[in-house]
Amino acid sequence: MALFAVVQAAFLLTLLSFRTYQSEVLSEPLPWTPESLEVSINSAQQCLYLQWRVHNLTHHQELKMVFQIEISRIETSNVIWVENYSIPVTWNQVLHWSWESKLPLECVTHFVRIRSLVADASIPEPRFWSNWSSWEEVDAQKSLGQDPLFVFPKDKLVEEGSNVTICYVSRSPESNISCAMEDVPIHGKRLSPNVSVFILNDVRFIRETGTNIYCLNPSNMSGIILYVSKVLEEPKDFSCETQDLKSLNCTWDPGHDTTLRHQSSQRYTLFESFSGKTKLCEHKKWCHWQVAPDSQETYNLTLTAENQLRRRSVSILFNLTHRVHPMKPFNVFLKSISATNATMTWKVHPVGNYSTLLCQVALHGEGKVIQQHNVSVKVKSQYFLSELEPVTEYVTRVRCAAANHFWKWSEWIGQTFTTLEAAPSEAPDVWRNVKSVLGSHIVTLFWRPLSKSHAHGKILFYNVVIENLDKPSSVKLLSIPAPANGTELTLDQCSYQIHVTANNSVGTSPASIIVISRDPGNKNVEEGRIQGTEDGFSLSWKPQSGDVIGYVVDWYPQDPRCQLQWKNLDPNTTSTVIRSDAFRPGIRYNFRIYEISTERIAYLLEKKTGYAQELAPSENPQVAVSNLTSHSFSLSWKDYSTDSQSSFIQGYHVYLKPKEEQCHPGFEKVVLSDDSVCCQYKIDNPEQKTFVVENLQPESFYEFLVTPYTSVGEGPHDAFTKVTIPDEYSHVLIRIILPMIFCLLLLMVLCYLTSQWMKEKCYPDIPDPYKSSVLSLIKYKENHHPTIMNVNDCVPDAIEVVNKLEGSKIQFLGARKSLTEMEFTKPAYLYLLPTENYSGPGPCICFENFTYNQAASDSGSCGHVPVLLKTPPSQLALLTSPENLLKTLEQNYVNSSGGSPAGETSLNYVSQLASHMSGDKDSLPTNPPGPALCSEYRTQMAVSLGLASPSPSENSSLSSVTLLDQGEPRR
Ligand SMILES: *[C@@H]1O[C@H](CO)[C@@H](O)[C@H](O)[C@H]1NC(C)=O
Ligand SMILES: *[C@@H]1O[C@H](CO)[C@@H](O)[C@H](O)[C@H]1NC(C)=O
Ligand SMILES: *[C@@H]1O[C@H](CO)[C@@H](O)[C@H](O)[C@H]1NC(C)=O
């Protein structure tokens, strides 16, 4: 009870004293209020720094206090931030607090005030806030210049992904200010008439030179650069290793580079906690750390990455000897290289003083690792490489690692070498083909080149040793230079053993042995057919004799240019599939199966022939038509070879285009692929290559086609051949009537010839004056035809009428009297031109045929006689030679061309009456021709007298005149 009373009294006392204390606080300012508040600005950081003191603390007193700070924007009532800041406060301490503003501080005015609360256990409750300090105004705009427009923040650096608040401040309230980031307009919020704020969310890195943001009004523009950097990453894959236990190389993956223009990039520092050493790294990805000589074994390294915005670090703890990454070995050499062995030597860089390295030797051949060995190495080492192939290029490589604590292999170092040649290791694969010709065996040997792995070098030649088994002493050696793959031997009827070896520069291969027996073993074996498949040809056979050392299947295509191929088979096989990429569809292959006896004699077991794939024939036989009669013809295609076709010929189809509804007997009506109907005859025997088409209609034509057929189809239905069937009597015609006609013709020719002869002899031809050669020599100026002058061309002035019987009246133009009044008992000249007044050599008219007279003038017995009008014809001058005449004529015609033919120049018409005796030119007429009853008027020629007649005194020839007189019936 007493205890209770004591406790109660104490409680009351305490309560009382607190009341007293409280009343004191309320009445006067509390001690420990914040005083001397100072606010400063860091524009770049957008930070407000506050500092203040707390008075009335006793000397060694430390009080735990809470300060409440309020920040307002634009006006004091607009509180944007309230924060309680707890801190133990000592005597005379200056307190600091900072606040980072999202909005650049230049944008608007900020206000700050502070109050405090003692939260120390030494001071009894209740606790009360002190009074607020007065508002401190922070106006960064005051320090700005007089520019009309500002944009903030200036040159701010932010990380990618952060939100950035920017603002513009205008000196005068304006509404039409627009802002853009990288030319993309941005829209903000108006804080006051002069200030607008833009919030850019999640800004992205655009370029190292920063992002451009600007605002403009009609007269001004202002802008800022916002530096957006990548976020600094934590270094990845941080590890350290040593090559020689003297230094460490620490490496890492730095991730994104955060470097920006005008901003320093991230820095890396190494810190080792045991030694307390720090190193600023020079490179971004690795750092060199010098190992202390005091043989520190364990390291705890911290790598710190740092830029202006961030700092990140990673640590590793390791033992130095467990991080040995040796340098690659050196001085790799190969010694004592033989065909199958080589020795490899190399050196390693020492690691520390004691360590042993583990080295790995790898042998590569043809790009693959063939052998791999591990070798323990101190400094120098060697390895014996064996089981190598001769004449092969190898690459040998070596790498090393710490033997005790494996960390990493060094890089490889390698060397290439080639082993030496060795004798070929295998006998060449040899096969033969034997032909018996005239009591000797022609043996063709074939061998395959040895594979590289068996040749062991370049094969230089093949030795063929031929041993006569019947005469053991007789051995023949042939050396055949490579790269031959066979040879031909002519052997007699003895048995021979043939050894074939391949030789290179080092030695000789084992021998391949073949025995050619006296009987070549090509006994008559029926050839069977075989059908190839996509997989090849499947062959099987029955073993015949018990003792065989193997079987050989050989094959060759029908094409003789292709070489024999063969396949060796075990003695206990009885079937095989022959595959070859060389098998082509439509080519026939012949297969032979041999068994090889223990004496190495090959006996033919079976023969097969077949196609890998049969193809329909691509061509039809060339068919010859013979024995054509009026009812039948024969077809034959003997040249068609059934063996060299693209499939097995089963027979032939003879197609005949039908004449009527019905086909010929034996033919069958079929529809061809082009829907035409045809008659088909089937020949089953591929060797029957003739066919007679019968029962044909004479005098008609037929169309036929012969095409082979096979299991895969028949030949092309290309052009049908047409045959015209003669009529029944055509052969009679040919055999009887034609010779008769021929005889008749012969007879007629004979008769004609005889009559010609008769004519020549009995009544020879009168020469035709029209065809005289003189005519052709005269060049007419106007008339191009070398004919005798046309009557039309002349103006007749006289006409000679010869023996007019009927006495009919003949009227002439310009004639002065009727001709009927004249007597026509003689030929007469009618003078048509006036002659009385004519002086000089007057016109004279006569009729002359030069042609006819040519012969006469040639002979000198007759000439041209110009007739002068006043003188009798006997006075006519004579043109003695045809040359003269021609000249004269030519001149005359040329000169007189312009004038009228009936003009001053006298015309002389010289005519020749057709004489009955003119057939004989040689005989001159002795009598003037009488008035012939059938005389006719002939075409005349005009000769100008003036020129045609030289002066009579010059060239006159009386004989000619006489001659002419004789010919002139007028006198
Ligand atoms: C606190 O200190 C100031 C001077 O520093 C003094 O004026 C004031 O009286 C003191 N107040 C109390 C309660 O001690
Ligand atoms: C940026 O602002 C968006 C939306 O206002 C907010 O969701 C996001 O957390 C902010 N990012 C940062 C880094 O403050
Ligand atoms: C350290 O390692 C890096 C990366 O492997 C390499 O680039 C650098 O040269 C090394 N430094 C030294 C001193 O070996």
Automatic annotation (TrEMBL):
Membrane topology: Single-pass type I membrane protein
Subcellular locations according to the entry: Membrane
Fibronectin type-III domain boundaries: 328-422, 427-522, 617-728
This protein's record includes keyword Repeat: yes
SUPFAM superfamilies found in the cross-reference section: Fibronectin type III (SSF49265)
Transmembrane segments: 732-753
Pfam family, one: fn3
UniProt-annotated stretches for the region Disordered: 945-971
Matching Gene3D superfamilies: Immunoglobulins (2.60.40.10)
GO biological process: positive regulation of cell population proliferation
Signal sequence coordinates: 1-27
Keywords: Disulfide bond, Glycoprotein, Membrane, Receptor, Repeat, Signal, Transmembrane, Transmembrane helix
GO MF, one annotated term: growth factor binding
GO cellular component, one term: oncostatin-M receptor complex
Biased composition (Low complexity): 949-960
Family in the record: Belongs to the type I cytokine receptor family. Type 2 subfamily.
The protein's assembly and partners: Heterodimer composed of OSMR and IL6ST (type II OSM receptor). Heterodimer with IL31RA to form the IL31 receptor.
Name listed for the protein in its UniProt record: Oncostatin-M-specific receptor subunit beta
Native organism: Rhinolophus ferrumequinum
